[in-house]
Give the backbone structure.
Amino acid sequence: MLTVTILAIVAFIPAMAANSLAVIFGGKFPIDGGTKIDGKRILGDGKTWSGLLGGVISATVLGILLSFVSGSLYPSGVEGYIIILSLSLGALLGDICSSFIKRRLGRRRGQRTPLVDEYDFVVGALLLTFIVSQTWVVETYFVNGRWMSLLVILMLIPLLHRATNIIGYRLGMKKEPW
Ligand code: CTP
Ligand code: MG
């Protein structure tokens, strides 16, 4: 039981890493190209191609390395790689969707939105991965007490989020320490 819980938490690393690594690679080439609708940026300067591509690629590579370390994290072969990619990409697409909504609500880039800022990527990662492999998501996070791993992930994320943002802020990669 403990082993499967730990494996499910480790399997979620690509999603968490994508979100953190986007801060490191980010900042160049805004995805919305500066375009506004109704006087508000579509996404804002916090969502860039460098963050999206850098985050997705590096998190996917990390996930594939993890899959070599432990063969029981993901299904074997291409199916596993697709799951790793969808965890990474889904995380950053979720983050982009939440910025789109925040801008429509008139929130400036970086203005803090509790819970949404912490969990947008979790929802995005689980949703995209669910579309790609329903069975894996359900069996890893939702049945036979597996929700415990999801609960631990949800508890760890605010800490990780905070740590990443403080590091990003100290390194001058992020304007706010959150
Ligand atoms: N980042 C990026 N591209 C992405 C995601 C993140 O360049 N697709 C970088 C940006 O430098 C961003 C930082 O990572 O400032 C932190 O991400 P996040 O907190 O999601 O962005 P915010 O600046 O807070 O902007 P928003 O209000 O839109 O969330
Ligand atoms: Mg933010």
Notes: The pocket of magnesium ion (ligand 2) is lined by residues 110, 117 (CB under 6 Å). The two ends are 34 Å apart (CA to CA). The chain has seven helices and two strands.
